[in-house]
Amino acid sequence: MTSLTREARASYAFVERNFNLTKRYIGWEAAFLVYAVAGALSVSLIGQSIGDRRLLMLLVVGAVFWNYLSVVFQSIGDTITWERWEGTLEYTMMAPVRRSVQLLGSALYAVIYGLIHTTILLIVLALFFSLDLGKANLPAAAVFMAVGSLSLIGIGMLAAILPMMSVERGSQMVFVLQSCLLLVSGVYYPTTVLPEWMQLISRISPATYVLDAVRRALIDGASIPDLLPDLWPLLITAVAFIPLGLWGFGQAEKYAKRTGKLKRVG
User: Fold this and answer.
1) Distance in Å from the first CA to the final CA of the chain
2) DSSP H or E run through 127
3) Percent of the chain surpassing pLDDT 70
4) 77 three-state secondary structure
5) How far from 135 is each of 10, 138, 258, CA to CA, in Å?
6) In angstroms, rounded to a whole number, what is the distance separating the alpha carbons of residues 215 and 9?
7) Residue 249: phi, psi to the nearest 5?
8) DSSP state of 193
9) Across the chain, what does the average pLDDT equal?
């Protein structure tokens, strides 16, 4: 119990450190929030312009919850990048804490920050469009957001390997991977409009199942039993990707230390 408490405190230390960094760059955080709101409004106004309330809801839910998933993914994927920016990479990697403790702390921060960011976005859109959520099944939507977060955390850990392997191009590849998830996950359109080979890729993306389930829960009031076809792929990816992400990150760290790639600058 003492060891578990110590590791929990160490993990919380990374949460607190990341929030302190957020406060340090609060101006940029406000700018990114304004950009997210403007982007979500711009897309949602397509549904408003043609007078289709269902399309409007589909676009609003897609924009809001993609914002959450992308914030979680990018926050975890940029774990090493943040350390390099702050000049703390060597100190963090030499700290007497397990790497899993650091990554889980970063993941917890990403989830909390993503919820705050997305709640603000949802409130703005709800006020702007006078959204009717009378039929919404909020518990079902919350369950899928929780399970989907676990799946994205595992993929984010794998993405965090990229900046460790390449100082110059790693962060760029994290952004490219995030963009690919946006393309294939049906954020603003059904995945059935994609070419067949892209539809196959969309079935690997946890965001596909999260967005489909959350839309049906909030717009149609679907219950968890109704959404089971979306639940089991998320559970499988969560169980598979988190251990794989932790193992892969550890192996990449050993390789980076052995080859001298784990350095503060390029």
Assistant:
1) 41
2) helix 99-129
3) 97
4) helix
5) 42, 9, 56
6) 36
7) -65, -40
8) G
9) 87
**Cβ pair 265, 84 in contact under 8 A:** yes
Neighbouring residues of 230: CB distance < 8 A, sequence distance ≥ 6: 144, 209, 210, 212, 213
Judged on CB neighbours under 10 Å (0-12, 13-18, 19+), 248 is: middle
CB 149 within 8 A of CB 72: yes
Q: Where are the domains of the chain?
A: 2-259
> Considering the chain, what percentage of its residues have pLDDT values greater than 90?
27
Mention every residue, 6+ apart, whose C-beta is less than 8 A from residue 153: 72, 76, 107, 110, 111, 241, 242, 245
pLDDT in tens, 8-50: 788 888 888 889 888 888 998 899 999 999 999 998 898 888 8
Residue with tokens 């067949």, as numbered in its chain? 196
Q: List the Cα angle 86/182/48 in 5-degree steps.
A: 115
Tokens of 66: 């993609």
169-198 per-position pLDDT tens digit:
888 888 899 999 999 998 998 899 999 999
Return the closest-CA partner of residue 181 out of 161, 204, 215. Answer: 204
Please name which of 188, 70, 45, 66 lies closest in space to residue 125, comparing C-alpha atoms.
Answer: 45
Q: 165: Cβ–Cβ under 8 A, 6 or more apart, which residues?
A: 252, 255, 256, 261
Distance CA 235, CA 210 (A): 11
